[in-house]
Q: What sequence folds into this?
């Protein structure tokens, strides 16, 4: 997975919010979501400068808080938006979905903060822990079971990546547990899944060895 175009969260520059935010690769979905939340206008197309300038002050302040100051809100939405941007930058030619429900072989629908489709087919899913205790063995085991259920179902035939992100840290035994679980899976091209764990630390996502 290559994180081309992923914004270096925390970068600061002099000038107005627009001057700073235009340097960030903010996904279309986030721009629209924030515009809606802040009752703001948003140009449908055009340069990033022009689109940002079409937004109201509340929307620009929220985007600045999310991507520049890397603040967190009580609902964990800001963390999810940053994680969405991280995944989006890794799959920039794919369709990125937020809070998507993916059916598994068991018939159960699994909801992921981020899911990735390529030509209408799922190729990756991603979980994010925005608050609470650091990611535990229980958290990653549940994540692994969800991914396995999807992979065995008709919607998971092309899925090859699964990412667990955290803004609250990851316990060492949790990373090892996911590594042990994924190590038992088939390694052939048709069945393999690359599991990754990333932690948001010092305003950037860092991959943790599993």
A:
């Amino acid at each position: 997975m290559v994180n081309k175009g992923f914004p270096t969260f925390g970068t600061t520059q002099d000038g107005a919010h627009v001057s700073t935010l235009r340097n960030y690769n903010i996904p279309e979905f986030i721009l629209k979501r924030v515009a809606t939340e802040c009752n703001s206008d948003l140009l449908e197309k055009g340069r990033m400068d022009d689109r940002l300038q079409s937004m109201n002050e509340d929307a620009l302040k929220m985007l600045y808080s999310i991507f520049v100051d890397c603040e967190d809100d009580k609902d964990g939405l800001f963390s999810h938006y940053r994680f969405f941007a991280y995944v989006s930058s890794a799959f920039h030619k794919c369709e990125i979905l937020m809070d998507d429900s993916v059916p598994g072989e068991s018939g159960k629908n699994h909801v992921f903060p981020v899911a990735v489709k390529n030509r209408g087919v799922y190729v990756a899913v991603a979980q994010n822990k925005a608050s609470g205790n650091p990611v535990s063995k229980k958290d990653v085991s549940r994540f692994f079971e969800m991914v396995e259920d999807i992979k065995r179902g008709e919607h998971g035939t092309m899925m090859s990546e699964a990412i667990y992100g955290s803004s609250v840290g990851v316990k060492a035994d949790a990373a090892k547990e996911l590594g042990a679980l994924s190590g038992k899976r088939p390694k052939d091209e048709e069945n393999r899944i690359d599991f990754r764990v990333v932690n948001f630390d010092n305003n950037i996502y860092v991959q943790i060895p599993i």
Remarks:
- DSSP finds seven helices and six strands in the chain.
- Residues 137-152 form the longest helix (16 residues).
